[in-house]
Specification:
- By secondary structure, the chain is α/β, with parallel strands linked by helices.
- Helices cover 43% and strands 13% of the residues.
- The relative contact order is 0.14.
Amino acid sequence: MRKLHIARAAVAAAAAVVLSGCHWVVGNSIIWLAQPSIERDSPNVNVDADPGRGAYTVGLAGKPSGWDTIVARVPEIGAGEWLVVEIGTNDLTRPEAEWRTFMQEVVDLLPDDRCLAWVTPANPMYPEAAARYESLLNAVLPGQPCSRLVQWDDALRRDPSLSADGLHPNDAGIAVITCLINQVVHQTCVYPPPPKRLD
């Protein structure tokens, strides 16, 4: 709890000097692969991603953990703007209590006038854990007044061809996850697309 109070104080101090906000996507290898597409197609969206990153573990490139990155980025997010979290895939073998703590800390840290989206993890090696992770998200995320799930796992179930390994997006998957994020942040994309009319 003390850690969260310190983080909140740091966020409040940093927020006082932010002149204009932006949207941030914090993620692991899934978002790292999609970063060029997201930043090209999503105005005012910045990405901080590192393969292997977990909630409380650093990524393979040595970038800070998901939590430390979120603490650093929240002051840059303006009122009405989005924090998109794509952290969880690498935590599915970690204790469930750790997942809940991370989710709750993010909700508690983010001011109520900011929006929170969370990308649902997909991992064919741990499907039951991924389902439990999403269930926890459904319980915790409503604590943020403006919140949405980004259903990457549903997209992969609907169309397995979006990934060669059932986990990481290929080119088609990158287009879809970019669209899913746009659908939340800018509402300029729809996935899955509506069925074609047979006139």
